[in-house]
């Protein structure tokens, strides 16, 4: 936040107020869906670090998709990324599912060609399995 406040002087007052709000709530904020290495819900500063990592991961996936859209990455690479994200159908990580959705939203229409129809059918079949899995959060 310091970097943003110093880089965007116009918004200094807003960033200062946001710091004040964070000071009052940061220790109480938690997300039962994000767990630490011991399986306990994370809270406070850990929560913000985990959210930042998640946001950056989704940003990376979107960036990869945009590179493909500009023909800077090959179709084969996109299929490998999708296969990796669909690799654990029995007990998938929530971040993998979100990344898969972000990637397919970005590049799915471009990838869905007659040449890749068989691949797409397998992807959608696996996604249907994921929807039925009790291990997947709604």
Quick take:
The chain has six helices and two strands; from the N terminus they run H-H-E-E-H-H-H-H.
What does this structure look like?
The chain has 138 residues and is mainly alpha-helical. The protein has a single domain, classed as Serine Threonine Protein Phosphatase 5, Tetratricopeptide repeat. It contains 6 helices and 2 strands; from the N terminus they run ααββαααα. A two-stranded antiparallel ribbon has the order 1-2. The longest helix is centred in the middle third of the chain and has 26 residues. The chain is flat. The relative contact order is 0.09.
What is the ordering of alpha helices and beta strands?
A: HHEEHHHH
Q: In this structure, how is the largest beta sheet organized?
A: 2 strands, antiparallel
Rg on CA atoms, Å: 19 Å
Query: Beta fraction of the residues?
Result: 5-15%
Whole-number tally of structural domains: 1
| Strand runs, count | 2
Low-confidence stretches: none
Number of helices: 6
Q: Reading side by side through the largest sheet, how are the strands ordered?
A: 1-2
């Amino acid at each position: 936040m310091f970097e943003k406040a110093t880089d965007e002087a116009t918004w200094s007052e807003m960033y200062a107020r946001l710091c004040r709000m964070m000071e009052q709530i940061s220790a109480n904020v938690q997300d039962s869906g994000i767990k630490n290495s011991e399986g306990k819900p994370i809270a406070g500063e850990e929560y913000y670090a985990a959210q930042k990592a998640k946001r950056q991961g989704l940003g990376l996936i979107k960036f990869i998709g945009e590179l493909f859209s500009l023909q800077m990455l090959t179709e084969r690479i996109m299929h490998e990324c999708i296969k990796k994200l669909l690799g654990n159908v029995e007990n998938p990580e929530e971040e993998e599912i979100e990344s898969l959705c972000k990637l397919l939203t970005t590049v799915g229409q471009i990838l869905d060609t007659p040449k890749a129809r068989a691949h797409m059918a397998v992807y959608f079949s696996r996604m249907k399995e994921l929807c039925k899995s009790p291990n997947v959060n709604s």
